[in-house]
UniProtKB/TrEMBL annotation:
In the C-terminal section; belongs to the class-I pyridoxal-phosphate-dependent aminotransferase family. It holds the Pfam family Aminotran_1_2. InterPro entries: Aminotransferase_I/II_large, HTH_trans_reg/aminotransferase, PyrdxlP-dep_Trfase, PyrdxlP-dep_Trfase_major, PyrdxlP-dep_Trfase_small, Tscrpt_reg_HTH_GntR, WH-like_DNA-bd_sf, WH_DNA-bd_sf. It comes from the Bacteria. Residues 10-78 form the HTH gntR-type domain. It comes from Isobaculum melis. Keywords: Aminotransferase, DNA-binding, Pyridoxal phosphate, Transcription, Transcription regulation, Transferase. This is DNA-binding transcriptional regulator, MocR family, contains an aminotransferase domain. GO terms for molecular function: DNA binding; DNA-binding transcription factor activity; pyridoxal phosphate binding; transaminase activity.
Length: 481
């Protein structure tokens, strides 16, 4: 295991780094495993101890290992702080591919989704089921109509940007300028552009813990370090954020304040104001992901975008994909004009042009006379499904749940402690797909369920599955006790 292959022209400390990384990725070294002492490694590799120290220092800086007083060097148990290693040849690039899916649970879920057995219950997929996606009647269009459409510039289709501004004004009672909105191919492209233009490899970003951002490979691919900040019932804890910011030199804060993914929580107005005041004092920009903002179950003046409260310091991301279906791939990013110009220029240089076709259709949907009526009916049905799932889980003493005020997800905590790998497999065995807590943080005791996909036709099957899984989990817990 500790036999070092020394390559001509490759510094020895680099070879040591690659050997340890290879052992971590292949599972020979697991999270929490302790590496041999520096002296032993130097003996194994037949090198000076200083060379081993250099290699371990690099691995610590990259976030793959941590050093604890009295415990030696340990493989990092989570993803916080991890970034990719700079590479100089194709083999090494491929080994370091952050987009390569290695999570076994994810692979098994995707296999089941592809096989689509009749009794499969999909509470995992993060989008609306087809039966809930609103339908709109479009006028006959010719190919020439698309070719003649001249109202698109570097920021995107101008009428669609106007429609987005009108919709935000009606919903939140504040104005965005169409000149400060960039249409993107979904919310993730907006995030990608921010990482590429406003941050550099090695920079640190603070996110909520748990958060869907934790599982996105674009951060590691860009060399950005993520650090999680604990949440309470009001949202991200600003006191904890300050400690993380000072310790890790945080450059940017990314939050999902309304109907947060995965917890479904909404940040209180007081916490929103506290977060804004903190970030202003440290001159730290905020990225606000508001893709679920339109899926509010009740009108509340307390749920106001951070962008409305601090227009100049907040980069605001929205999306139509959560209400018009994921294939729509229409998102947007609002930022100060100087920032938007740079982001648009970067996208053009990357050749990430956006087709006029989905933009034109999205604008037709938003300007349809029945658009608001259909969105209202959609929210009513989603809320109904969410309440059914909530009431079921809330009636079971083993689960702790809270009904969200909007969005698609319910977050359920197993009260009996952490779940093991064999416990997670019970969900797969019962053909019930959920997103486990370790997708979103280092939590091992929670599940996320997309309740919009649990309807009257499969609710009884869902009920039987979750009850059966709960009994099996209790049985396993009792064996241990």
């Amino acid at each position: 295991m500790w036999s070092l292959k020394k390559e001509k022209g490759v510094p020895i400390y680099i070879s040591i780094i690659e050997l340890i990384l290879a052992h971590i990725k292949t599972g020979k070294l697991l999270p929490g495993d302790r590496l041999p002492s520096e002296r032993k490694l130097a003996s194994y590799f037949q090198v000076n101890r200083s060379t081993v120290v250099h290699a371990l220092d690099e691995l610590v800086a990259l976030g793959w290992v941590v050093r604890k007083q009295g415990s030696g060097t340990i493989v990092n148990t989570g993803k916080w702080g991890i970034r990719t290693t700079p590479r100089t040849d194709w083999r090494q690039y491929l080994e370091q591919n952050a987009f390569h899916k290695v999570e076994p649970f994810t692979e098994k879920v995707e296999q089941l989704l592809q096989q689509a057995p009749n009794n499969l219950i999909d509470g995992y997929t993060g989008e609306l089921p087809l039966d809930l996606v609103p339908t709109f009647e479009f006028p006959p269009l010719t190919w020439k109509h698309f070719l003649e459409e001249e109202q698109q510039d570097d920021l995107g289709y101008f009428p669609l940007r106007q429609s987005i501004c009108r919709d935000i004004s009606a919903q939140y009672d504040f104005s965005l300028s169409s000149e400060n909105i960039l249409i993107t191919s979904g919310a993730q492209q907006a995030l990608f552009l921010i990482l590429q233009v406003l941050l550099k490899p090695g920079d640190s970003v603070a996110i909520e813990s748990p958060s869907f951002l934790y599982s996105l490979p674009i951060f590691q691919a860009a060399g950005i370090r993520l650090y999680g900040v604990e949440m309470d019932e009001e949202g991200i804890c600003v006191d904890s954020l300050e400690k993380v910011a000072l310790k890790h030199r945080i450059k940017m804060v990314m939050v999902n304040p309304s109907f947060q993914n995965p917890t479904g929580k909404s940040m209180s107005m007081k916490r929103r104001l506290d977060l804004i005041e903190f970030c202003q004092s440290y001159q730290m920009p905020i990225v606000e992901d508001d893709v679920f903002g339109q899926l509010n179950f009740e009108s509340s003046p307390l749920i106001q975008p951070l962008k409305k409260l601090d227009p100049e310091n907040v980069l605001y991301i929205g999306s139509l994909s959560k209400i018009l279906g994921s294939t729509t791939k229409i998102g947007w990013l609002s930022a100060p004009h100087s920032v938007i110009k740079q982001l648009a220029e970067a996208r053009k240089m990357m050749d990430f042009s956006l087709s006029i076709f989905p933009q034109l259709l999205a604008n037709m949907a938003m300007t349809d006379p029945l658009y608001l009526t259909k969105i209202t009916l959609l929210k009513k049905e989603i809320k109904k499904r969410g309440q059914a799932v909530f009431q079921l889980l809330n009636s079971m003493n083993e689960w702790e749940v809270e009904m969200p005020k909007g969005g698609l997800y319910i977050w359920a905590r197993w009260k009996k402690g952490n779940l093991k790998q064999t416990d997670w497999s019970l969900f797969l065995q019962e053909q019930l797909l959920i997103a486990p807590g370790f997708f979103f943080s280092e939590k091992q005791d929670c599940i996320r369920i997309n309740f919009s996909r649990i309807d009257e036709t499969n609710f009884f099957s869902f009920k039987k599955s979750i009850e059966k899984i709960t009994l099996k989990l209790l049985s396993e817990k009792n064996k241990i006790d």
